Amino acid sequence: MHIHPPATPLAASARASIPLYPLSVHINGVQQHLYVEAWVSLLDLLRDRLMLTGTKKGCDHGQCGACTVLVDGKRINACLTLALMQEGRSINTVEGLADSAVLHPLQRAFIAHDAFQCGYCTPGQLCSGVGMIAEGQAHTRAQVRELMSGNLCRCGAYRQIVAALAEVMQLPPDNEDGSVQAPAGKVSA
Q1: In the Cβ-directed half-sphere of 124, how many Cα atoms lie within 13 Å?
Q2: Is 183's pLDDT higher than 80?
Q3: Element containing residue 68 per DSSP (H, E)
Q4: CA-CA distance, 146 to 140, in Å (whole number)?
Q5: Is residue 179 scored above 80 in pLDDT?
Q6: Kindly report the CA angle at 39 between 35 and 40, in degrees rounded to 5?
Q7: Within 13 Å and on the Cβ side, how many CA atoms surround 169?
Q8: Does 140 have pLDDT greater than 50?
Q9: Count of alpha carbons within 13 Å of 14, Cβ hemisphere only?
Q10: What's the whole-model pTM score?
Q11: Cα dihedral value 153, 126, 22, 31, nearest 10
Q12: Contact (Cβ atoms closer than 8 angstroms) between residue 164 and residue 113
């Protein structure tokens, strides 16, 4: 058990002098009106203040993707942005992907392809995948691998993650050399 020293008048006055700034955002479809310090990251706001702990703190330097969330539909690393920079925006975390008790199609595909392994990177992988699909830039599995390369998986479930995304995106399988297979019944030139 950790015992905190009694609060002193000096400590209380120091806390009182820290300015708080208003922040109004939609998080997972719910309007939030908050007051936060200027230095609070979006990740810390989500995890520590709003108890949305699905978003993970991995490296805290924007290198692993565990903290990926969607801001106005675009994927970002929540550890690299200040909460106050999101004023008026719509933020979706992994908790907001499902529609009530109905999982998002990508969540179902992750389960079907065993793409979640230990689960630590899964929230960031899912949010990044949803954002990548919305971007519309991936048309092959090779492009999926490239566009998802900012999200690391320590378990090495990359094949399963790509398979889950490819299923949802209805991508054709790749050949051994990475080229796309022609649909059945068609001859490629």
Answers
A1: 27
A2: no
A3: strand 68-71
A4: 10
A5: no
A6: 60
A7: 24
A8: yes
A9: 5
A10: 0.84
A11: -160
A12: yes
